[in-house]
């Protein structure tokens, strides 16, 4: 008795099992933007800072942020600088104090990109 085989010996392009996926949910630029934002958010202190700023809704003094976190002012300032350099927050100097606020339009873009990324998982 002859063994049953399913081997495909046809090597034409039409017979290839793998076809390129062209419906990519994110462009290269969007993927880079999202990866950069997620890298910034990948620290508990930075996540808490953003949550505090977003909850407040306006500009918050760095001294008030420090009082809400289990770290000292230099550490708070370091993480705020990273968030500011990454474009997620803005700062405003008022005399000797510095106040911070979230850049809602930037975070809305990050949220949109995350939603766009996960859209295909819901399908």
UniProtKB/TrEMBL annotation:
Keywords on record: DNA-binding, Transcription, Transcription regulation
A molecular function GO annotation: DNA-binding transcription factor activity
SUPFAM superfamilies for the chain: Winged helix' DNA-binding domain
Keyword set includes Cell wall biogenesis/degradation: no
Domain HTH arsR-type: 26-123
Keyword Chaperone: no
One Pfam family here: HTH_5
Superkingdom of the source species: Bacteria
NCBIfam families: HTH_metalloreg
Name this protein carries in UniProt: Transcriptional regulator, ArsR family
Organism: Chloroflexus aggregans (strain MD-66 / DSM 9485)
């Amino acid at each position: 008795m002859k063994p049953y085989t399913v081997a495909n010996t046809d090597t034409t392009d039409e017979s290839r099992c793998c076809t390129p996926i062209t419906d990519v949910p994110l462009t290269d630029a969007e993927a880079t933007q999202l990866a950069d934002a997620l890298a910034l958010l990948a620290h508990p202190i930075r996540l808490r800072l953003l949550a505090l700023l977003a909850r407040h809704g306006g500009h918050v003094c760095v001294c008030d942020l420090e009082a809400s976190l289990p770290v000292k002012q230099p550490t708070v300032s370091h993480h705020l600088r990273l968030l500011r350099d990454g474009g997620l927050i803005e700062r405003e100097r008022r005399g000797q104090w510095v106040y911070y606020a979230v850049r809602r339009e930037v975070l809305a873009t990050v949220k949109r990109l995350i939603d766009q990324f996960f859209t295909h998982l819901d399908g």
